Amino acid sequence: MVGASAPSEVDWCLRHVGSLAQAQAWKSRGVWFTDVARWKQVTSGFAEVDSWRVLGITLPTQVEEWKATCGDIEEVARWQRLDVEAAEVPKWQALGVYSTARRTWERLGIHDLKEVAEWTSRDMSPAVARLWIRVGIGAAEAGEWNAVGMNERVSRRWRRACIAPQAAREWQEAGCNPRRAKAWGAAGFGPADAASWLAAGKRVKAAAVWLEAGVAVESEATAWTSVAGGPTAAAAWLRIGVTSPDEARQWAALFEGPDAADEWVRTGLTAPDAHHWATCGLSDDWTPIGDPAVAIAWKQAGFGPSNYDSWSGICGDPETAAEWRRVSGDSIDVAKAWKTAGALLPGTVEALRDAGLDANELAGWGRLGASEPTNVLGWRALWSISEASTWVTGLGLSVDVAYAWFEHCHGDLRSAQGWRDLGVPTPSDAAGWTACGFELDEVRSWCAAGVSSVDVAASWSEARFSAVDVAAWAAVGVSDVVAASELRDLDLEPAAVKKWRDLGATVADVAMWASCWDEDTAQSWMTLVPGCDLVRAWDWRTLTEGRFDLAQRSTKLGLTAATDLEAIAATSNAASIEEALALIDEFAENGVKVTEVKRWLGRFAPSDALAWAAAGFGSADDAAEWANCGFAAGAAAGWAKVESRPPDVERSSFRGQGWGLVV
Fold first, then answer.
1. Angstrom distance (rounded) from CA 314 to CA 346
2. Are residues 413 and 390 in contact, defined by beta-carbon separation less than 8 angstroms?
């Protein structure tokens, strides 16, 4: 019985299931009547449906998905036991891993699809992977070791030596085990180099000495030994750039060791060429070339040791020498002739030669003083070399000055010599004299007076001075026409000016002194004291109002300057110079020098100062100290015999008790 099913369901079951009993069977399995047709398409009947349901697969679509990936239900069961979803199965199968193999990978502890892919991509089965995993090597590294032909057992020893797979293979091919490879590697050798030493039966310590010297291969070390004798000498050659024993043998045959060959090696020359240049002489003394750079420069300019010394003797550098070779037609004699004539540059030679000038004519112009070859072309356009020679010789002048005379005198040599004989230095000077109306004889007079400038002569002449006058004024130091005119206007002749100059007056001050007094009076006043000049003499004359006797009396008292007497007179309030001198006399009678009078008057009134001086005090400072303590001159003199200073008297017991000193 289907139960109280709707007529439509019954009808459907009869048409699609076949009978109510079958419909009941499908329904008891939880299959709704609408899904029966779909189940029939993907299964063979109730038994298969039950098998899928046992696996937990309850939908036809799930069955269809699993069948598409696994084929039969047994394979599905195996994948389900591995907890692999249907969608994941194709990914495993793409790696060639089916349920049985997948279980094997599981037993190895590899559950991740990506990790399995790493192993299978290197064509490693679970059994092979197990061996690598057992020694702690992952898929990537195992693939590297496998690629160089080493299994897990061998690779483990190389790994312990910290040597990578490819290197391990190279060391193995070189005949090294891991321990030996590590030792050679630590010494700095690669597998191939180490193999050469091992083949020769050498140990790593011996090889390391050569490696430190720069030789890594045993065969090279053997070759170096035959040349240098050992690693130290080989290292010296290698250090300067000699890279092979054969090359070192060539250098050693020509130079005394690496130090001597060092700079030459760096030039890039071969050993024979370097030796040829190194022994090449400089000019005639055959001093060897010490600088390899010099040799290289000359070689690059096209010179060899055979012609280097001759060209280097006249040319400073190889580039210039090459230019000289070109312009001289490779003739050293032609080059020397041009250089001797003064053409120092190849370009100059070309210009002169193009203008039709040869070395001989250039030398002739040079002897005339035309030192710049390029200027010679200009001179040739002005006059011939014969004319130039006549004028230069006749005047004894340089070519340029001689030509100026030639042009000024219109080719008349005698006229030029006449001006030169008069002392006129240049043609322009001669033209200037003539333009100002001076004849040759007048010019001679002015030049004899020391006036060589026409402008100066003209200015003196306009002021009505003759050449003789100028000479007289110049003799007394007056060389300016304005100053001479001013002095002449004061009726001062050169002789009077000379007297004032002899007394020490400057040219500028002569007029001032002459307006004050005459030179004889000034000279007498300057005799008052030794070294007295005009200014001090005038001070004495002014202070004493022209009384020479008072000035003499002052200087005899020891006064050397009128300002000292004036200061004493002012300090003492003296009514006159005579009164001041009388006061100085009184001080002198009491032993006070004239140089101290001003100091006394600065401390005391004149009468008090004289009293203290008369009391025997020789110093104004000492007297002032006693006076400031309230002592009179007489009392102070008495106490000074007992106590040296006023403070000592103040502390005296007699003074404290009101005692006075009985003198």
1. 12
2. yes
What whole-number distance in Å separates Cα of residue 358 and Cα of residue 340?
Answer: 12
Identify the band that residue 60 occupies on the pLDDT scale cut at 50, 70 and 90. confident
Which one has a higher pLDDT value, 32 or 368? 368
Q: Nearest-CA neighbor of 101 among 122, 130, 72?
A: 130
Q: How many CB atoms lie within 10 A of CB 167?
A: 17
For 281, the 3-state DSSP assignment is strand
Write 318-327 long-range contacts (CB < 8 A, 24+): 320/345, 320/346, 323/347, 327/353
Q: What is the pLDDT of residues 18-44, one digit of tens each?
A: 666 667 667 666 666 666 766 765 665
Tokens representing 42 are 């993907």
| Dihedral sign from CA coordinates of 217, 221, 222, 227 | positive
In angstroms, the CA 559 to CA 597 distance is 11
Residue matched to tokens 């797979």 = 165
Categorize the per-residue pLDDT at 84 as very low, low, confident or very high, splitting at 50, 70 and 90.
low
Kindly report, residue by residue over 290-301, the tens digit of the pLDDT: 667 777 777 777
Residue 152 CA to residue 154 CA, distance in Å, equals 6
Q: Which residues pair with 281 in a beta bridge?
A: 288
Contact 189, 211 (CB under 8 A): yes
SS (H, E, C) 618-650: CCHHHHHHHHHCCCCHHHHHHHHHHCCCHHHHH
Q: Which tokens is 245 given?
A: 């024993």
The tokens describing 330, both together, are 């490779």
- What is the model's pLDDT at position 661? 42
Residues near 594 by Cβ (< 8 Å), separated by ≥ 6?
A: 557, 558, 559, 564, 584, 587, 588
Q: Average pLDDT in the 361-366 region?
A: 82
**Cβ atoms of 108 and 119 closer than 8 Å:** no
Task: State residue 58's pLDDT score.
Answer: 62
What is the chain's mean pLDDT, rounded? 74
pLDDT per residue as tens digits for the range 616-634: 887 888 888 888 888 888 8
Tokens 């199965």 correspond to what residue? 89
H/E stretch holding 288 reads: strand 287-288
Q: Kindly report the number of other CB atoms within 10 A of residue 435's CB atom.
A: 10
Size of the chain, expressed as the number of residues it contains: 663
- The C-alpha atoms of residue 473 and residue 465 are separated, in whole angstroms, by 10
Q: Do the Cβ atoms of 607 and 591 come closer than 8 Å?
A: no
Q: How far apart are CA 272 and CA 366, in angstroms?
A: 46
- Cα(522)–Cα(528) distance, integer angstroms: 11
DSSP sequence for 437-471 = T--HHHHHHHHHTT---HHHHHHHHHTT--HHHHH
What gap in Å lies between CA 331 and CA 324, rounded to an integer? 9
